[in-house]
Write a structure and sequence with these properties.
This protein is about 30% helix and about 15% strand. It is built from five helices and five strands. It is α/β, with parallel strands linked by helices and about 160 residues long. The model has no long low-confidence stretch (mean pLDDT about 85). The protein is globular, with a radius of gyration of 17 Å. The chain has one domain: Rossmann fold, CATH 3.40.50.700. The strands form two sheets. A three-stranded parallel beta sheet has the order 1-3-5, with helices on both faces.
Protein backbone atom coordinates (compact mmCIF):
# COMPACT_ATOMS: atom_id res chain seq x y z
CA UNK A 1 0.00 0.00 0.00
CA UNK A 2 2.89 2.36 0.70
CA UNK A 3 4.07 1.87 -2.86
CA UNK A 4 0.64 2.97 -4.08
CA UNK A 5 0.94 6.05 -1.83
CA UNK A 6 3.62 7.23 -4.24
CA UNK A 7 0.75 7.72 -6.74
CA UNK A 8 1.97 10.61 -8.96
CA UNK A 9 5.64 9.69 -8.54
CA UNK A 10 4.96 6.08 -9.50
CA UNK A 11 2.71 7.12 -12.39
CA UNK A 12 5.30 9.58 -13.70
CA UNK A 13 8.09 7.00 -13.54
CA UNK A 14 5.94 4.46 -15.38
CA UNK A 15 4.84 6.97 -18.02
CA UNK A 16 8.46 8.01 -18.53
CA UNK A 17 9.34 4.38 -19.20
CA UNK A 18 11.66 4.24 -16.18
CA UNK A 19 9.75 1.49 -14.37
CA UNK A 20 7.44 -1.32 -15.37
CA UNK A 21 5.60 -3.58 -12.96
CA UNK A 22 5.91 -7.10 -14.38
CA UNK A 23 4.98 -9.31 -11.41
CA UNK A 24 2.62 -8.65 -8.53
CA UNK A 25 0.59 -11.63 -7.30
CA UNK A 26 -2.05 -9.41 -5.62
CA UNK A 27 -2.50 -7.31 -8.78
CA UNK A 28 -2.03 -9.68 -11.71
CA UNK A 29 -2.54 -13.29 -12.60
CA UNK A 30 1.10 -14.11 -13.33
CA UNK A 31 2.22 -17.37 -11.74
CA UNK A 32 5.89 -17.35 -12.70
CA UNK A 33 8.09 -14.31 -12.01
CA UNK A 34 9.82 -13.09 -15.18
CA UNK A 35 13.39 -11.81 -15.33
CA UNK A 36 13.70 -8.20 -14.10
CA UNK A 37 16.36 -5.73 -13.06
CA UNK A 38 14.77 -5.17 -9.64
CA UNK A 39 12.35 -7.19 -7.59
CA UNK A 40 10.66 -5.77 -4.52
CA UNK A 41 9.60 -8.44 -2.02
CA UNK A 42 7.34 -7.86 0.98
CA UNK A 43 6.23 -10.16 3.77
CA UNK A 44 7.93 -12.85 5.79
CA UNK A 45 8.69 -16.19 4.19
CA UNK A 46 6.09 -18.43 5.83
CA UNK A 47 5.43 -21.35 3.51
CA UNK A 48 7.17 -23.72 1.11
CA UNK A 49 5.49 -21.80 -1.69
CA UNK A 50 7.02 -18.53 -0.39
CA UNK A 51 10.47 -20.17 -0.38
CA UNK A 52 10.01 -21.33 -3.98
CA UNK A 53 8.85 -17.91 -5.20
CA UNK A 54 11.57 -15.92 -3.42
CA UNK A 55 14.26 -18.27 -4.79
CA UNK A 56 12.91 -17.87 -8.34
CA UNK A 57 12.76 -14.09 -7.91
CA UNK A 58 16.37 -14.01 -6.66
CA UNK A 59 17.57 -16.08 -9.62
CA UNK A 60 15.79 -13.84 -12.08
CA UNK A 61 16.76 -10.37 -10.86
CA UNK A 62 19.86 -8.25 -10.54
CA UNK A 63 18.75 -6.45 -7.37
CA UNK A 64 16.43 -7.75 -4.66
CA UNK A 65 14.81 -5.25 -2.30
CA UNK A 66 13.11 -6.40 0.93
CA UNK A 67 10.33 -3.96 1.84
CA UNK A 68 8.60 -3.72 5.21
CA UNK A 69 9.45 -5.08 8.64
CA UNK A 70 8.13 -8.57 7.89
CA UNK A 71 10.47 -8.99 4.91
CA UNK A 72 13.41 -7.20 6.57
CA UNK A 73 13.22 -8.18 10.21
CA UNK A 74 10.50 -10.86 10.55
CA UNK A 75 7.88 -8.40 11.87
CA UNK A 76 4.47 -9.22 13.28
CA UNK A 77 3.99 -12.26 11.07
CA UNK A 78 6.61 -14.13 13.05
CA UNK A 79 4.67 -13.87 16.29
CA UNK A 80 3.46 -17.30 15.20
CA UNK A 81 7.01 -18.57 15.78
CA UNK A 82 6.16 -18.74 19.49
CA UNK A 83 3.92 -21.73 18.70
CA UNK A 84 4.26 -25.04 16.91
CA UNK A 85 3.04 -25.12 13.33
CA UNK A 86 0.17 -27.50 14.16
CA UNK A 87 -1.02 -25.19 16.96
CA UNK A 88 -1.02 -22.20 14.60
CA UNK A 89 -3.02 -24.03 11.96
CA UNK A 90 -5.52 -25.37 14.50
CA UNK A 91 -6.03 -21.88 15.94
CA UNK A 92 -6.45 -20.30 12.50
CA UNK A 93 -8.73 -22.89 10.93
CA UNK A 94 -10.51 -24.74 13.75
CA UNK A 95 -10.74 -22.60 16.89
CA UNK A 96 -11.10 -19.08 15.46
CA UNK A 97 -14.57 -17.55 15.69
CA UNK A 98 -14.20 -15.97 12.25
CA UNK A 99 -13.91 -19.32 10.48
CA UNK A 100 -16.22 -22.26 10.10
CA UNK A 101 -15.34 -24.83 12.74
CA UNK A 102 -13.86 -27.76 10.94
CA UNK A 103 -10.49 -29.04 9.91
CA UNK A 104 -7.21 -27.61 8.74
CA UNK A 105 -7.11 -27.44 4.91
CA UNK A 106 -4.59 -29.73 3.29
CA UNK A 107 -2.97 -30.38 -0.04
CA UNK A 108 -3.49 -27.73 -2.71
CA UNK A 109 -5.94 -25.81 -0.52
CA UNK A 110 -3.12 -24.46 1.64
CA UNK A 111 0.62 -24.17 0.93
CA UNK A 112 2.77 -26.17 3.35
CA UNK A 113 3.53 -23.88 6.27
CA UNK A 114 7.17 -23.65 7.42
CA UNK A 115 7.90 -24.45 11.06
CA UNK A 116 9.02 -20.83 11.53
CA UNK A 117 8.45 -17.69 9.46
CA UNK A 118 11.68 -16.04 8.33
CA UNK A 119 12.78 -12.70 6.89
CA UNK A 120 13.71 -12.87 3.21
CA UNK A 121 17.48 -12.60 3.79
CA UNK A 122 17.43 -15.88 5.73
CA UNK A 123 16.39 -17.60 2.48
CA UNK A 124 18.19 -15.64 -0.27
CA UNK A 125 20.63 -12.73 -0.65
CA UNK A 126 18.96 -9.33 -0.28
CA UNK A 127 20.64 -6.25 -1.76
CA UNK A 128 18.59 -3.51 -0.13
CA UNK A 129 16.33 -3.22 2.92
CA UNK A 130 13.45 -0.74 3.24
CA UNK A 131 12.06 -1.33 6.74
CA UNK A 132 8.93 0.08 8.32
CA UNK A 133 5.49 -1.19 9.19
CA UNK A 134 4.56 -0.09 6.67
CA UNK A 135 7.57 1.65 5.14
CA UNK A 136 6.78 5.30 4.54
CA UNK A 137 6.32 6.57 1.00
CA UNK A 138 9.42 8.76 1.48
CA UNK A 139 11.50 5.62 2.18
CA UNK A 140 10.17 3.91 -0.93
CA UNK A 141 10.69 7.04 -3.04
CA UNK A 142 14.28 7.25 -1.78
CA UNK A 143 14.91 3.57 -2.62
CA UNK A 144 13.39 3.86 -6.12
CA UNK A 145 15.23 7.11 -6.86
CA UNK A 146 18.59 5.66 -5.79
CA UNK A 147 18.01 2.50 -7.83
CA UNK A 148 17.10 4.55 -10.90
CA UNK A 149 20.36 6.47 -10.38
CA UNK A 150 22.30 3.19 -10.41
CA UNK A 151 22.95 3.13 -6.65
CA UNK A 152 22.12 0.28 -4.25
CA UNK A 153 20.50 2.34 -1.48
CA UNK A 154 21.03 2.19 2.24
CA UNK A 155 18.08 3.97 3.81
CA UNK A 156 19.33 6.75 6.11
CA UNK A 157 17.98 6.58 9.68
CA UNK A 158 16.30 9.98 9.45
CA UNK A 159 13.95 8.61 6.75
CA UNK A 160 12.80 5.79 8.99
CA UNK A 161 10.87 8.09 11.30
CA UNK A 162 7.32 9.10 10.50
CA UNK A 163 6.53 12.80 10.71
Amino acid sequence: MSLLDLDETLRDLALAGKIEIVFSPPLMDVKDPPAADVFIVEGAVSSEEDVEVVKKVRERCKILVAVGDCACLRGNLTMRNLYKKDEVLKCAYVETDSTTKGKVPSGKELPELLEKARPVDKIVKVDCFAPGCPPSPKVLKYVLTELLNGVIPTVPPELLHYD
